[in-house]
Write a structure and sequence with these properties.
Number of helices: 4
CATH architecture of the domain at 79-148: Ribosomal Protein L15, Chain: K, domain 2
CATH class of the domain at 79-148: Alpha Beta
Distance between the termini: 87 Å
Order of helices and strands: HEHEHEEEHE
Structural class: alpha/beta
Length: 165
């Protein structure tokens, strides 16, 4: 392909369309703006990006304050098997309390999750809120236990029972 011939026949310096220069030009009278309407009059410009054609704008429809996920969000401490392996001895129980004593679980949390990153070289018994599949496989391969700590019971709703027929 010859790059010197790519732009042959392409006019790069296109002339600006001159509107409002009489009826014979084809772009007179309304100057390509049509009859009536929002953009027909002088000074009519495209509105700001938030304008939705008269519909209530998104930023006015959404709440401005008092909304937070904090009421139901849960924070979990994530610990890898490789980190646990170096700190615990054969046969020890690994739970949130023992991890806090060893310095792996820092700060407040709603639970603990054990991930399978790293290698496990000893038999350890685990008690945690969640386990990844690879972590359970590695723990069971060494003869250890992976016990799930059950979540707290949901509060019972005080609903009226329907009448029995």
């Amino acid at each position: 392909m010859d790059l010197s011939k790519v732009h042959i026949g392409v006019n790069r310096l296109k002339k600006k369309k001159r509107v409002g220069r009489g009826i014979g030009s084809g772009h007179g009278k309304t100057s390509t703006r049509g009859h009536k309407g929002q953009y027909a009059s002088a000074g009519a410009d495209m509105p700001i990006a938030s304008f939705e054609g008269g519909q209530m704008q998104l930023f006015r429809r959404i709440p401005k304050r008092g909304f937070s996920h904090a009421t139901w969000d849960k924070t979990f401490l994530v610990v890898n098997l490789g980190d646990i392996d170096s700190l615990f001895q054969e046969g020890e129980v690994v739970n949130p309390e023992s991890l806090a004593l060893k310095g792996l679980a820092k700060g407040p949390c709603d639970g603990m999750k054990i991930l399978g990153k790293g290698e496990l070289s000893k038999k350890l018994n685990f008690r945690a809120h969640h386990f990844s599949k690879s972590a359970v496989e590695k723990i069971q391969a060494k003869g250890g236990l992976a016990e799930i700590i059950p979540p707290p019971a949901k509060p019972k709703r005080n609903k009226m029972k329907p009448k029995q027929k």
